[in-house]
Every structure is written in C-alpha cells, then in structure tokens.
Amino acid sequence: MNEKTVKEYSNGEISVIWKPDLCIHSGECVQNSPKVFNPDEKPWIKPHNSDSKQIMETVDKCPTGALSYRIEKAGLEKPEEQKPTFKIKIETMKGGPFIVPTAGVELFDSDGEMQELEGKTFSLCRCGASGNKPFCDGSHSDIDFEG
Questions:
Q1: 30 SS3 class
Q2: Residue 56 contacts residue 94 (beta carbons within 8 Å)
Q3: Phi, psi of 55 (to 5 degrees)
Q4: Going edge to edge, which strands form the sheet with 67-71?
C-alpha cells in the first residue's frame, strides 16, 4: 500500500482513522471491540456497531498508532490519558540495534514474563537475525544489515 494511505470510518460522533502502513496486525482492536473491528468483513471498521467511548478506549490501545480518531460531536470527551512523568530516549544504531536505557523501563517477553535488565542500557534487535530476541546478539554484522 502507498505509505500515505489513510482511511476514515465515521458514526457521526467520531471518525476512526486507519493508516494501514503502520498496522502490524497485533489484533488489539479486534480483541477489544470485535463488533467494530472485523478484518473478515468489508469495510473492516464499523463504528456504528458500538458506543463511541468504547471505540475511543479500544483505539487508544493500538500499539502502533495505525488507529486514531477525531471527535465529531460536541460534548464527547476523549478519555483521560496517562502521560509519563519523564521521557525515555531510544537511539537507533545505524546498521544495528535500538539502544534503550534501563532506567524506567520494564521489558516483558511474549509470555508476559518480565526480563531482568542489567547495566545502563540494553540493545533490541532490529534485523531479525538475533538468536537472543528481543535482544541484539550482534547478528546484524553477519548479515550486513543496513537498516
């Protein structure tokens, strides 16, 4: 898809905005609001099938920002956001991993187990070749990763 593709679906109160190129198909939307988000149907987003506040809560759980919304109806309020009290700086190493500071970060594996983080920083694989995912093991050098 063209990286500028944007689709909108409205129920009159809110418009759900989908940017397909950002979507990693994690399924958060489908799990949280299956009546609204159904990839087996066309259109796959049907905001008329739920209340706008529920849709906003679901969209706010999108891990990539592929889903967002615009409030169309006066008086409808966005749910209160929990904003972090500090920022975390993540660096991208040219041809290598993401460098992440350990301070303030909890990393959970795909089984929900918290990973023990040591030192001031840790490195997350970007190339996909690491034998120690999600951590980098230097395999990017072996495959000439250029990301």
A1: helix
A2: no
A3: -65, -45
A4: 7-10, 14-18, 67-71
SS3 call for 89: coil
Take residue 72 and report the two structure tokens written for it: 């169309």
30 and 22 in contact (C-beta within 8 Å)?
no
| Peptide bond just before 79 cis, omega within 30 deg | no
Distance CA 76, CA 53 (A): 8
pLDDT in tens, the chain (147 residues): 445 889 999 999 999 999 998 888 889 999 999 999 999 999 999 999 999 999 999 999 898 889 999 999 888 877 776 666 778 889 999 999 999 998 888 888 888 888 888 888 899 999 999 998 888 999 999 999 998
Q: Where are the alpha helices (DSSP H) in 19-124?
A: 28-32, 52-59
Q: What is the DSSP string of 52-79?
A: HHHHHHHHTT-SSSSEEEEE-STT--PP
The position carrying tokens 């975390």 is 88
